Write a sequence for this structure.
């Protein structure tokens, strides 16, 4: 490892907060990371980190070196990006982050299509439902619902994420047709929950066009979106799901849309996000590929819901 690499390693240690986390990410022994940082301190002739058994902190010199490392990383990334734009064919590594379900359903399909046309592009796909720092963690593209809070990121709309209310025929037979909001809110429902998050409220427009919301009776809470659908299919609860979550359940009669007269608000919008407006050609081409896989106008997942364009429109 040369001097610039050790300087960038220092930045990783600071950003991840420990030698151990960096060693796990790089799949090397913790002692290797520690030795490289000590070597960097020897080369510079200054102490960079204050080490204790429980924590690390930067010295004044270390703080200055980390600032220099950030500038170096930015310069290297920009240099690589500019060089890639001169390639006749896309090549190199494309690092992608995506929410888990969307990644499994559509990003993977887009990668398979892309690899057939551009075999010199390598991929790294990370599926996780946390908010990712695109720049700090070095991702080229991210796919998420909602625009990022970081206004410096470039966004491209992929598709709407519409919602519907579903139940099984047996659930409806047991509880009767659901025709009022009072019924909807009183019946047992499956809802998604995560760390600091409970999705049990949904927006709609009333007869006057005013925004209102209803709240589900969350008798079953689960932290996996695919389990929400499986739970509702079991027939013990109803649920509010996104169209993307539906496979063949409605086509096969396992689930039925209910309360279709409500004008439901979208859950959000899927966006592709990337760090630079003048992105490498491989980034732009991959987003084009993903968009083609999902559908240019109507997202492919809405085709699993007959006459969906007529439902939940008020």
């Amino acid at each position: 490892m040369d001097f610039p690499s050790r300087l960038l390693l220092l930045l990783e240690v600071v950003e991840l907060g420990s030698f151990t986390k960096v060693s796990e990410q790089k799949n090397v022994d913790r002692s290797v990371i520690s030795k490289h940082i000590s070597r960097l301190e020897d080369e510079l002739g200054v102490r960079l980190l204050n080490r204790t058994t429980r924590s690390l902190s930067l010295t004044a010199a270390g703080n200055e070196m980390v600032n220099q490392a950030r500038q170096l990383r930015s310069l290297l990334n920009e240099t690589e990006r500019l060089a890639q734009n001169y390639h006749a064919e896309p090549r190199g590594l494309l690092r992608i982050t995506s929410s888990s379900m969307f990644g499994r359903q559509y990003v993977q399909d887009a990668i398979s299509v892309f690899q057939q046309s551009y075999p010199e592009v390598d991929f790294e796909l990370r599926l996780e439902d946390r908010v990712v720092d695109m720049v700090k963690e070095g991702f080229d593209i991210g796919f998420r619902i909602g625009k990022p809070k970081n206004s410096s990121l470039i966004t491209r709309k992929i598709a709407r994420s519409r919602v519907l209310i579903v139940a099984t025929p047996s659930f409806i037979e047991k509880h009767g047709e659901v025709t009022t909001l009072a019924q909807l809110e009183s019946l047992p429902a499956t809802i998604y929950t995560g760390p600091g998050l409970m999705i049990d409220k949904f927006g709609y427009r009333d007869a006057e066009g005013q925004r209102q919301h209803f709240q589900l009776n969350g008798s079953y809470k689960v932290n996996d979106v695919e389990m929400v659908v499986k739970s509702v299919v079991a027939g013990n609860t109803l649920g509010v799901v996104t169209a993307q979550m539906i496979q063949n359940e409605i086509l096969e009669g396992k689930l039925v849309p209910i309360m279709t007269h409500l004008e439901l608000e979208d859950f959000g919008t899927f966006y592709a996000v990337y760090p630079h407006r003048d992105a490498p050609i491989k980034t732009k081409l991959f987003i084009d590929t993903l968009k083609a896989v999902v559908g240019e106008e109507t997202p492919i997942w809405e085709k699993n819901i007959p006459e969906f364009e007529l439902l939940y429109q008020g």
In short: The chain has nine helices and 16 strands. The chain has a mean pLDDT of 90.
